[in-house]
Each structure stands twice: as C-alpha cells, then as structure tokens.
Amino acid sequence: MDQDFYKTLEAPTEEVLFKDKNSKFFGYAYPVTTEDEIKDIIDTIKKQHYNARHWCYAWQLGTETIHYRANDDGEPNNSAGMPIYGQIQSFEITNVLIIVVRYFGGIKLGVPGLINAYRTTAQIALEEAQIIEKTIDAVYKINFEYKDINNVMRIIKEKNLNIISQKMEMNCEIIFSIRKSEAEISEAAFVPYYEIILKRIS
C-alpha cells in the first residue's frame, strides 16, 4: 500500500545559533506550503539580518510529487544549500524551509568547515522543531438534491469524512476530504444513491 502520511513541522522554530571561528550561523525552520510563502519568509529574514554576509537555504514541497531547492547564496558550490537540504532528507520531512544566515567572523572556514557549519545549524534547528505526521488526503465534490441530504450526511458521519465547504440549497454541494487509503471505501458508500454525483477533485 502507498504511504498516505507525511512528516512536517507543526510550527516555526525559535532562532538557533552555531558559532565557528568567529563566524555566526543563525538557523530557522518553517512549515510551508507554497513557493510564494517561501519567498516572503526569505525576504523577511533578509530584512531582519540585513548586515549578514550570506542567507543560505533549502526547501522541499510536496508529498507524492516532490519539489526542492538548495541555495548557496554566494558560498562555494554545494557547501551550504545541499548540506541544509541533507538535513531535510535525514529528518524525512517535507513542506519545510530551512534558512541559515551567516555573519562572517574574519576567518575562512574552508569548504569542509562550511559544510559542517551549515549542516549542523540546520540539524540544531530541526532538533528544536515539533515534527508531526499529517495524512495525505483525497478531496471530493458531491452534488445532490436537498431531498437526499439525510443519506449524504449519514455517510459523511459513518465514514468520518472531513467537510471542507458546503452549500445547502435546493441543489446542494459539499466538498470533503478523506485519508487517501480510505478513499475507495468511502466512494463505494455513495454508489447505491445513483442521483448523487460524486467527483474526485484532488
């Protein structure tokens, strides 16, 4: 059976700090769902740390189709973004953004030192995080006449379907979600009622 849950962060973490040879590395971890949200958070952190030398980050979005990006922001290739992303993979989480802000302390760390510093800061940030499991859900739209409302609501209650929105008029519409592994069983419950139109929308 396909896995129908994923791990992510419950909330943004508090700022963490890692120091190496006078360089300071501030780490942040955020739960995110869109690239626009990621851009806004990065812009906010850049304003907050406008005197910093580098704002390196990595993010991953998606549950079944994964998108990710790792950014070195001027550090040597693969010395910052990928070590940060490696911690996202290590903790097996998604829908997450990790930013590490560096203030240069005057002493070069070399590539191995940078890799260690960015990886360690990301790890500390994630160790501070509350990691939770969420289900991967299927979303359905159901259209029916008002006279069928009792049958529909009974099935929704029996199958523990999560109502996202509803319009109750002469022609009714409900959008609901259900854990992916239970979707087919829930679909089958509506089959005897041929006047009810059920459509999966995601």
Automatic annotation (TrEMBL):
PANTHER family documented for this protein: IMPACT FAMILY MEMBER YIGZ, IMPACT-RELATED
SUPFAM superfamilies tied to this protein: Ribosomal protein S5 domain 2-like
Pfam family, one: Impact_N
Gene Ontology annotations for the cellular component aspect, listed alphabetically: cytoplasm
Annotated Impact N-terminal domain residues: 21-126
Similarity remark: Belongs to the IMPACT family.
Name used for this protein in its record: Impact N-terminal domain-containing protein
UniProt-listed GO biological process terms: regulation of translational initiation
Gene3D superfamilies according to UniProt: Impact, N-terminal domain
